[in-house]
Known about the structure:
3 helices
Amino acid sequence: MSYIATVSQKGWVVIPKELRAKLKIRPGSKVLLVEGEEGLVITPLPEDPIAAFRGMLKGFPLVEELLEARKEEAAREELRAGQLRGAGVLPG
């Protein structure tokens, strides 16, 4: 759907009521303005960004891969520390 809006002398643009309702834009809501190749993109920002993005990476393979790599690294560190303790380099 397309709309035409007029820019006021102060640079204000009124977002049509239908779009505000559909996108849940209320008085005081924040929007992100991004200049793109085809013009200006207006994106509503969530009222609580932390709540909006909570769980976003859950199940994301990279997170699981990083956790697994850290476990392996910790195991190698512990093995190395044990070897150093056995050699008398570290206190045991």
